[in-house]
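Fig. S4 source data, part A: sequence.
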Amino acid sequence: MHRRRRTALTVSAALLAGAPLLTACGGGTHPGAAAVVGGDRIEVSALQGQVAAVRKAQRGAQDASQLIDKSGQLSRAKLHGIIFDKVLDRAAKDAGVTVNRNEIQQLRKAAAAQSGGEARLRTVMLRQSWVAPGQIDTVFREQVQLTKLAAALGVDIQQPAGQQAVGEALTKASKALRVDVNPRYGTWNDKQTQLAGYKAPWISQVTKPEGVSAGV
């Protein structure tokens, strides 16, 4: 599933630099929340549920110990993904972009064909991207959203200028949502649209313009 991560996740990028809008949400302001995005709480229990789903899938793999050892930042990765998903939803909404289930399934079928079948796709997504089987459709929904967002902006997402335009739209959406992360998971950077200091292990440099950092 290299191609998906080289197109979708690598272009979920905004420009480097800039200070994030942050307040502590895990102490007294929003107890029990991993983050608050646009006023909506991301409960720690919901985050733990996503992590547990991945761990369950990993434990079922032949090299379970190795997979688990290599995914020590799984909680941060999943929180990043949940927040980014909400930011992308806002950017897509602002641009008048909608996605239907058929578009998601068509992309998933194409990815499965390229990967050697649905079973192989699940294996690759779990190993490379820490995505459990039940989380795969969310990944492809983001891919469709990113592609359609670029089209709505009138840019080519495969070009540096297009990636910058998409990144700027994501940054605008992130700032509008005033992402507030529990300090135990780090801080959110609006410009990079990612948890500060966090970089997903599957991110490729191939489709990013020079000086741009990616996130999922």
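Fig. S4 source data, part B ends here. The chain has one domain: 2-192.
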